[in-house]
Amino acid sequence: MRADYWTRFLIPPGVWLLALFAFPLMLVLALSLGYVDDLGRAVYGTDWSNYAEAFNPTYLPVLIRSVGYAAATVALCLLIGYPIAYYIARFGGRYRYALIAALVVPFFVNYLVRTYAWVALLSDEGLVNNFLVNLGLTDRGIQMINTPWAVIGGLTYGYLIFMILPVYASLERMSPSVIEAGKDLYGRPFRTFLHVTLPQTKQGILAGSVLVFLPAVGDFVSAQLLGGPDTYMVGNLIQDQFFAANNWPFGAALTVVMMLFLSIWMIGYLRSASRDARGAAI
Amino acid sequence: MSEAIRLEDVSKSFGEYEAVKDVSLTIEKGEFFSLLGPSGCGKTTTLRMLAGFEIPTEGRILLEGEPVEDVPPYERNVNMVFQSYALFEHLDVADNVAFGLKRKKVAKDEIRKRVEESLELVSLADRAKSHTNELSGGEKQRVALARALVNEPAVLLLDEPLGALDLKLRRQMQVELKQIQREVGITFVYVTHDQEEALAMSDRIAVMSDGEVVQCGVPEEVYEHPAEAFVAGFIGVSNLMEGIVQGKDKVKLASGQSVKAPLPEGCDKGEKVQLSVRPEKITLDDFERGMVTLEGTVAERVYQGVNTQVTISLGDGASVVALEQQTYRASADDRWEPGAKVKLGWHPDHCLVLR
Fold first, then answer.
1. How many Cβ atoms are within 10 Å of B37's Cβ, its own excluded?
2. E strand or H helix that includes residue A126
């Protein structure tokens, strides 16, 4: 009877999920089997050619580029985010919540708007180049925008907080006496970090990597605003099918393929990573 | 015996707060030495300075004759058993124990051998491959102990290691810890706020209060001859009675009665003192010649199984507690009900005059 009582509360979110999550997903699946008629309208059907087209080798470089940018973004987020999370968790004292809040606040601003700010910074006549020219360090400024670095930088800036928060949580959960134990047992500071702190925060690093990688690989804002034709990502490809090429069925097929690809990849990654965590213990 | 640790006028301040004030101690090799005191008395800070986690503001710390106050923990030949165990959850039991030896780059074969031996020592040989979160509190404690002892440190530091265990397990671990210490012969410095634990296990005890060592000695000495009212009150139950020195070995109690009491050196007539008598030294019958006797009224009587605790009011607001063994008369129904007039007495030798 108790179980029945609590199950009731599952009905509203269940309905919500069905109507606004599962149903649209079905629409995407159905659409991916459709075709475009002569008037350019999407028509439902049972046409697998969109999938054949999705696996066309011309798109392979786009996929590889997207995964590469996302992986670079994860690496950068880890390199920047871990030290920040570490210092706040270990030395933030009573200011730690204020510091975390200070990190989160910029993310209240829309991602698109923040990326435009980067455009203003990095463009050929942007703030950074003006500054460099005024200093006399360069004649015409440096090409920064439209490079892979600008895109990866934009992605890193956009998703950094998703690395910091889980890493911070795992560091805060760790007892400081564990680090002391490492030092007490002859671990020099770097060794202690490597053999104690890092493995104990592995769950946070894993969670952060997934949270950064997934949106980064499908992102189109950063590549669109900060990149050029050479930095075209999967997200741009899909977006263009919907808004430029007006080929919704193909866009839907690409979305489904991408979703399956990422799911398989993530499941494999998480399983092997958690096996590692257990393997190290056994 | 040679000395393992010497503290010379060691002080430690955190900003304005003085946690440890001018502590000087010498701990002999192979000794089981306890730092005993209430929380905030500076005992843990002292231990952390020995471990190298805190650097003294002033004074010197010598480990086997060498000054170590600036030596970081990973270069000190001391190991610590933490209050919260602080086990490495990502490693199994054997790897936890092997951690220190690996960092010291000991040969693999020797690591395996020594890990086995020390797990044997703490009776955990069959749990070598277990994950730390499969262990009970007592087992975790043993792993923490083995992890420290396997390095054969000059001194083992223990920070309230039994604090998280239940009473029965605690008693059992006390005995075991003492046995292990005798077996390995390593100097133990043991921090605790539990006076019974300190009395039961230690070779010597330093009682700390407000950052200072107020008394240091063997358990019998600290218990039987507390140097200060604080020690008398903190270690065991003590009856403290106000009095004024009246003359040679005479103290006048607040009730007006004079009693015989051995005065410490240099007590002047008219000086205010406190008389301390342990509850188990007070008898309510079987008085002997030369005993001090007082009159009182039974205020409360609590049956405790092993003995009966009788609180006796002395009429002037003061009261004393007496412990009576369960002799035939003590357990008789018609004795020492609340309100009954009783006579109580003790040997003058069993009372202490504290200034």
1. 29
2. none
Neighbours of A251 (CB within 10 A): 24
Size of interface A-B (CB pairs under 8 A): 79
Q: How many CB atoms lie within 10 A of CB A179?
A: 19
Could you name the CATH architecture of A58-281?
Answer: Orthogonal Bundle (1.10)
**If pLDDT is split at 50, 70 and 90, which confidence band does A280 have?**
very low
Which residues are CB-neighbours of A34 under 8 A, at least 6 positions away?
A42, A43, A44, A45, A47, A50, A248, A249, A252
Question: Pairing mode, if any, of strands B250-253 and B258-260?
Answer: antiparallel
A186 touches chain B (CB under 8 A): yes
Judging contacts by C-beta atoms under 8 Å, the chain B residues touching residue A199 are 88, 90-91
For A217-228, what is the mean pLDDT?
93
pLDDT one-digit tens code per residue, B121-167: 999 999 999 999 999 989 999 999 999 999 999 999 999 999 888 88
Query: Residue B254: which CATH number?
Result: 2.40.50.140
Report how far residue A221's alpha carbon sits from residue A238's, in angstroms, rounded to the nearest whole number: 12
In this structure, which long-range contacts are made by residues A55-62, counting pairs with CB atoms below 8 Å and at least 24 apart in sequence?
A: A55/A257, A59/A237, A62/A232, A62/A233, A62/A234, A62/A237
**Same domain for B271 and B329?**
yes
Residue A281 to residue B104, Cβ atoms within 8 A:
no
Same domain, B174 and B290: no
Which are the contacts of B131, defined by CB distance < 8 A and separation ≥ 6?
Answer: A281, A282, B92, B93
Cβ within 8 Å, pair B103-A178:
no
Contact A201, A170 (CB under 8 A): yes
Q: Which residue of A lies nearest to B146 if distances are taken between CA atoms? A: A185
Residue B173 CB contacts under 8 Å (≥ 6 apart), including other chains = B138, B141, B161, B162, B165
